[in-house]
Structure formats: structure tokens, C-alpha cells
């Protein structure tokens, strides 16, 4: 089977599909900074720098020989999800991402592939002004049946409490389903830690190798806070009543933002790896034992990127953005295996 990965980013979906045996012939993205990472880790897949709204429908027909009505073609549309994942007061800044799924649907309508894959935040299904109903109506109008569900990726080999909207659509005469979940969750201790090849490092450590076991620094007060935070799942409540360390924004709010400045648990899934996983103030992103935020490589590993996946970025922020926005490779692999099984 062959696939085209729209909104490919740094290549998480592409890599996972390739691991399942699917030939991803191209990835499309409007962000030039992800090109080097995508190409270096996915040889043979062509990176196309383009805004999907400006890309001609026949582009792949003319440049890659893609045929219409190809039963073994998969179009993947994991569009940026900022509009459906942030609070209403900030939506004006991300409104340009709202209708990208409909732009993707233009290519589905033109090529009529055997399968369509979509992964996104759960908000795309329940937000009042979501474009999902229009997308689903169009799919059904042109002859596709759809299976969709909100899945917890911790039951699909990804050590995060990461709930996602997942969809498979096909026009073929097959019994359609989504991949089956595991019986148990994947947890942090199975992926990171000294036993898994992650040396102990201090806050602010810089790793100039491709392994990128680099983490953000902490000021002295933040270090003091973290030293007082119990290992293996401790929270900021440990120092909430210390007048020297308590932050004014949290005063009287012990039941709000409880994960901020918290540590991960070894024996539980990590929280959702966001684009700000390098910051202890952005969530439960502190190492379970060490007094520091998790490193760039640890975040990538919790996203199930392999340890030899190289991220080309000019800063911690840029690397974390690429990693946090990615579809976890292991879930992508399982989607690929499952779609191929439907053809058997």
C-alpha cells in the first residue's frame, strides 16, 4: 500500500506507517523548518513544502503518477488542531487551522483512495463550530463508510494519557474497524530512566549529540521547589504553604492547575506530551526522580520516536514543538498494520 501524509510535520505518522510496511511516497507541510527532520528520518518519502489550500488537486497525479480510485492508496489528514484544543479566548489566533480538514477533503474527493486516516484532538468532535460534521457528510456522500472513536493512546503502546480522535474511512467492501486496544496501559518506566539508556543529568544540561538528552534550565527558586516535590508523582502542594516558594498565581488555588510543577509517576502513563513539555510550569513534566524537566529525547521517547530519530531544530522550543505536535509513531504503526489487515 502507498500513502500520502498531509500535515506531516516532523514525520511521526510517516515513520510509523513506514514501520508497518506502507510506502509513504510524500509528506506535505507548510512549515519549512520541519523539512530536514522529515527527510533525514524518512528516506524515500518526498517532502512537499506547500500550504494545502494552494496545492492543486491534480498535483500528485501529475508529479507522482497517483491514480484515481486506487484501492491501495491511503490519504492521511492529521491537520493542526490548535483551534480545537485551546481555550475560546485564544481561538482568534488559530482560526486559520479550523477548516484545514475540509481542504484535505478536496484531495479525498479528487483521488477517491481506498482508505482515509484522520487523527486529531477530541475537541474536533464536540466543539460546536467544528468542521467535522461537514467532513463526515462529504465522505458519506462520495461513498465512504466511517469508523471513529476517541481513543486513549496509553492502551496502544504509547506511554501517555493522550486521548485522541481517531478515524478510518473506506469505500471498499470490507468490515471496517479501528485497531483493538491492549489490556494494559504503557507506563513511563518502560521507556525512560537510567535502565533504558537515559543518564542522570542536571537541569540545564546541554547534549550536543543527535541523542539530544538536553533539558531546560531552572532558576534557584524553581530548583528549590522541585527539591521539595516528592519523587514519583509529587505535586506543588508539597510547598504550597511555603511563603518563600509559593507563586502568587497559585495562592488559594490548591485545587487548580495541580499538575503544574508536578513530577511524572514511573508506574503510570505520562501526561499528554505537549509542545511545552520542556517546561515544569506547563504541566506534570518534571522527571519522576531527578530535579529537572524531562529532556527533549525523553519527550520524543514518550511520543514513541525511536532513539535514533534525529530532530533538526535551532532551539529546545523548536524541537519540543515538532515532537509535541507529532502523531506518536507507535500508534501510526498500529494504524498501518490494521489497515493492511482489512485488505486481507
Structure description:
This protein has 344 residues and is of the alpha/beta class. It has 2 domains: 2-181 and 328-342, Rossmann fold (3-Layer(aba) Sandwich), CATH 3.40.50.150; 192-303, DNA Methylase, subunit A, domain 2 (DNA Methylase, Chain A, domain 2), CATH 3.90.120.10. It contains 11 helices and 7 strands. A 7-stranded mixed β-sheet has the order 3-2-1-4-5-7-6, with helices on both faces. Helix 1 packs across helix 11 (329-342). The protein is elongated, with a radius of gyration of 21 Å. The two termini are 12 Å apart. The mean pLDDT is 93.
Which term fits the overall shape?
elongated
Q: Structural class per helix/strand content?
A: alpha/beta
For the record, give the distance between the C-alpha atoms at the N and C termini, rounded to a whole number: 12 Å
State the order of secondary-structure elements, H for helix, E for strand.
EHEHEHEHHEHHEEHHHH
β-strand percent reads 5-15%
In order across it, which strands form the biggest sheet? Answer: 3-2-1-4-5-7-6
Give the helix level as a range of percent.
Answer: 25-40%
CATH homology superfamily name of the largest domain: Vaccinia Virus protein VP39
Q: Over the alpha carbons, how many angstroms does the gyration radius reach?
A: 21 Å
Number of helices: 11
Number of strands: 7
On the 0-100 scale, what is the average pLDDT? Answer: 93
